[in-house]
Amino acid sequence: MVFGEKVYWDSKTAFVLAAIGSAIGLGNVWRFPYICYKYGGGAFLIAYFAALLIAGIPLLILEFSLGQRIGGSPPTALGKVHKNFAWLGWFAIFVGFIITTYYSVVMSWSANYLVHSFSLAWGNDPKTFFYSNVLNLSDGIFKIGSPQPYLLLGLIICWIWILLSIWKGARTVSKVVYVTVTLPWLILVILVIGGFTLDGAMDGIRYYLTPVWSQLLEPELWQAAFTQVFFSLSVGFGVMIAYASFLPPKSDIVNNAFIIGLADAATAFVAGFAVFSALGYYANIQGVPVSEVMKSGPELAFVTYPAIINNLPLAPLMGVLFFIMLLTLAIDSAFSLVEAVVAGFMETFAIHRTKINLIVGGIAFIIAILFTTRAGLYWLDLVDHYMTFFGLFTVAFLESIAVGWFFDTERLRQRINEHSLVHIGKWWNVAVKIVIPLIALVLLVISVIGIIQKPYGGYPRMAELLGGWIPLVLVIIIGILLGNITRKILRKSKVEN
Ligand code: PHE
Q1: Taking a C-beta distance cutoff of 8 angstroms, is the pair 476, 91 a contact?
Q2: How many other C-beta atoms can be found within 10 angstroms of the C-beta atom of residue 381?
Q3: pLDDT tens digits, 68-118
Q4: pLDDT of residue 369
Q5: Rounded Cα–Cα distance for residues 132 and 135 (Å)
Q6: CA gap 271, 35 in Å, rounded
Q7: 341 CA distance to ligand 1 centroid (A)?
Q8: Out of 237, 272, 383, 414, which could bridge 96 as a Cys pair, Cβ 3.0 to 4.6 Å?
Q9: Prediction pTM value
């Protein structure tokens, strides 16, 4: 690449695939099914699709327009909206950056499980295997111990893989995503078809699809639905802004937002069939109702699923397929987060890509080592909670306020429509000005109150400070400092023009 040259996607398909690849991740096949399970199946599905249409897709259009129409990586685009919001772009990508640190460790678990699948190493007690053999989990968050060698090895491999995938930015990503998006889908289809043939599958699917209407009155269900939609669409971390900034002028962003949003939801919906049919089968073997097979959600991929795999025909093959699916799903989400950081730095400081790739990857890797230690799972859980909730909702709230109230929203809508097949109506202005900020604010306030009342997960307050508040405050301070630089650059370029 010639230094400073603007790199675009190879094609429209490459962009759509890359954005879908970022959106589809562990969130679809792991988080979605267990949250759906927790809230009783069908009712959650309804809330989820409603949340997608009310806030998810409008927010996706907003982020695409920030990156492509207003133009630039998250700090630049938000700085152009209003100079006082440049810091928010940095904040968003740093929150995303922290997410990659532990996301890559979950990838390392998956890589380890891929190898374990060949011999079904978890045997008859996948739970002990996961906590004792794989994680070697200690009994307290401050009993850190040393990194687990195989997790570390997996982590190194995953980081090399991530960095190679974004080596030349959009140009490399354009090629990688053809495999990392289609392969997991193929495997998913195999798992769904296989799932249907299992005894008891229908019980699971009935649980999945039957709504308990009264649950729709629970605010908690709606909170979970909106959170899942935001997380799953990869909005709020600057990724979609950065990706859209590599789109050539005149791209149709409305169309793309609908394709990407619906493809993401469809993947979660279809993955639900694979998971719930298997849960039905497992419930059948154990002679318990579907509602009782899974004790704790996060165990789904690494405890419940291995237990199910044990009983499947061609068990090792199913295991291998399942974990390849997880890995290929996760990789494009992971590198999209890194790419957003890299794009922000490249644009602001004109640093050469190779250098910044290595710096960002190196720092993320070093932080990630914490999550491979004996207390890794506790820290992962804690950091995840703070970053996804506060980071995500804060960004969604402020970026919609920025565009809705500090920018000519109506003019932006018209500019979006200029190159869109399907025009967005004035409802979008209402979504940006009122609906999205209101929902994000409510979610933020609920999370903050919840945490003040009771530390998340019962971790000691000290751990909460170290893993939650301090990183958040640091990210805000660094964001503000870098935001000032972005402001200066923007002012200068205005004067020059
Ligand atoms: N959307 C991804 C998933 O569903 C997670 C993710 C969030 C990826 C934010 C990138 C940015 O797993």
Answers
A1: yes
A2: 17
A3: 999 899 999 999 999 999 999 999 999 999 999 999 999 999 999 999 999
A4: 98
A5: 6
A6: 13
A7: 15
A8: 237
A9: 0.92
Q: Is the dihedral of CA 400, 224, 102, 166 positive or negative?
A: negative
Whole-angstrom distance, CA of residue 131 vs CA of residue 374 = 10
With tokens 């100079």, the residue in question is 83
Q: What is the CA radius of gyration of the chain?
A: 22
Question: What is the residue type of 307?
Answer: A
The pocket around ligand 1, CB under 6 angstroms, is made up of: 22-23, 25-28, 96, 231-232, 234, 237, 239, 333, 336-337
**What is the H or E stretch that residue 272 is in?**
helix 253-286
Q: Look at the domain 12-496 and name its fold.
A: Amino acid/polyamine transporter I (1.20.1740)
The residues spanned by each domain of the chain are: 12-496
Helix (H, G, I), strand (E, B) or coil at 92: helix
DSSP-based three-state secondary structure for 476: helix
Largest Cα–Cα distance of the chain, in whole Å?
A: 73
What's the pLDDT band for 2 if we cut at 50, 70, 90? very low
Residues 6+ apart with CB under 8 A from 484: 86, 87
Q: How many Å lie between the centroid of ligand 1 and the Cα of residue 359?
A: 22
